[in-house]
Amino acid sequence: MAYTAHGKRGPVSKHIETRGRELMESSPKVIDRASCVVGMKAHDLRTPALLVDLEAMENNLYQMARFFRGRPTKLRPHFKAHQTLFLASKQLQMGSIGIACARLEQAEALLRHGIQNILIANEIAGKDMIERFVDLSHYAPVLVAVDNPKVVWDLAGAAGERARELNVLVDLDVRLGRCGIRPGEAALSLTKLVLEKGLRFRGLMGYEGHIAVPAGPEKERVVHAALQQLVDTKSMIEREGIPVEVVSCGGTSDYSIAGTFPGVTEVQAGSYLVMDTWYVPHAPEFIPTLTILATVISKTSGERIVVDAGAKAMSGEHGLPSVKGIDGLRVKAMHVEHTLMEISDASVSVEVGDKIELWVRCLDPTLNLHPHMYGIRHGEVEKLLPIEHS
Predict the structure, then answer these.
(1) Which terminus, N or C, of the chain has the lesser number of Cβ atoms within 10 Å?
(2) The domain at 2-53+285-386 falls in which architecture?
(3) In angstroms, how far is CA 368 from the centroid of its own chain?
């Protein structure tokens, strides 16, 4: 899509020194820039700019909420896939039971915003992180994943008499080969240590990873094999007389399978909401929403154009971006400050000074390159969405 030619907040990483009041603030600080840009035409924004199509985002929000409505398994969307407090609140309003996040700093930001049902779906380690989690747990029953006895000992040691305030899930490696303890006896042993040290064992977590398999029997087989390890471990623990309240797993690529698997209590889908183009083949029912608005700064007629957005504005981790709404342009290369596009159709009318949009190919690292997203509806800025950096 072409338009005829004619904004940094620091990371949210406060150590909780003043504890209670700061943590329980119900809303983030107002950003003055919001009053300046709301109502502007999208093509009047300075470039490069990260845009989110609000109508497409709402379509994705409603579609996922409809799937989980009335089911025993609930949705706990992952914060890292949009990193905006406004969108997390929207997900909760649509029926999500809580929010998952990847880092302690994100949990702190969510709690300051008034969100209390939080899962840090990742391991923490080290004196600073442990102490901050203990402090956080004094104000809300935040869950954290553990897969190592040392962390259990450290949590208990830092909490002392408050150990019972710490809520943990034992994290299993069910397929991805990243974090997580082995299912079965190893997980049972760690669970018993959690209880022995006085922490509150809440259940199990396991992330099977992106399931890059088309919908059908093979995809179901792969997902079922991963989730069965979770459920079998749950049964083993329960046979020891230990209740397992939470079984958390899944993602956007397999939410419909995980969300109907017996024994699973919640699904951590994240990318579905704002969606990038790399993920579309794995979950085609959701619509891409994110683009980078860029200005054409150079043109070689019949050969190429160059825009002012490169690797500093969007990630190339999963390949090159594509151009939105203009079939006659093909991205050839992305440099630090520039993206080069081949003119494959001489009839394409794009000139220096025009603005075009590039589809975001990989959302997570792209979000980290911007202080905010511009929420666009009918070509105008409706809302400025600050991004919570960790």
Answers:
(1) N
(2) Beta Barrel (2.40)
(3) 11
Query: What is the per-residue pLDDT for 211?
Result: 74
How far apart CA 110 and CA 103 sit, in angstroms, is 11
Beta strands in 173-252 (DSSP E): 200-206, 246-249
Question: Which residues share a beta bridge with 294?
Answer: 356
Q: Percentage of residues in the chain with pLDDT exceeding 90?
A: 86
Q: Dump pLDDT digits (tens) for 123-137.
A: 999 999 999 999 999
Please report the sign of the dihedral spanned by the C-alpha atoms of residue 308, residue 312, residue 315, residue 317: positive
Q: How far apart, in whole angstroms, are the C-alpha atoms of residue 275 and residue 283?
A: 9
Nearest alpha-carbon partner for 84 in 385, 375, 381, 363:
385
pLDDT, tens digit (0-9, with 9 covering 90-100), for 170-185:
999 998 889 999 999 9
Q: How many residues does the chain have?
A: 390
Is 275 within 8 Å of 364 (Cβ atoms)? Answer: no
For the chain, the average pLDDT equals 91
Q: Which helix (H) or strand (E) holds 157?
A: helix 149-159
Amino acid letter, residue 319: G
Q: Which two tokens stand for residue 166?
A: 């710490």
Other CB atoms within 10 Å distance of the CB of residue 360: 28
Give the whole-angstrom CA distance, residue 342 versus residue 333.
9
Collapsing DSSP states into helix, strand and coil, what is residue 211?
A: coil
Q: Using CA atoms, how far apart are residues 375 and 87, in angstroms rounded to an integer?
A: 11
User: Is 0.85 surpassed by the pTM of this model?
Assistant: yes
CA distances from 256 to 22, 38, 175, 216 (A): 38, 37, 18, 12
DSSP SS3 for 86: helix
* Whether residue 102 has pLDDT greater than 70: yes
At which residue do the structure tokens 């396991």 appear?
206
End-to-end CA distance of the chain: 33
In contact, 376 and 53? CB cutoff 8 Å:
yes
The two domains 2-53+285-386 and 55-272 share their CATH topology (first three levels equal):
no
Give Cα 218 distance to the centre of its chain: 26
The DSSP 8-state label assigned to residue 2 in this structure reads E
Instruction: Provide the pLDDT for residue 157.
Output: 97
Q: What is the mean pLDDT of residues 356-366?
A: 97
Query: What is the three-class DSSP state of 91?
Result: helix
% of the chain at pLDDT higher than 70: 91
At the topology level, CATH places domain 55-272 in TIM Barrel (3.20.20)
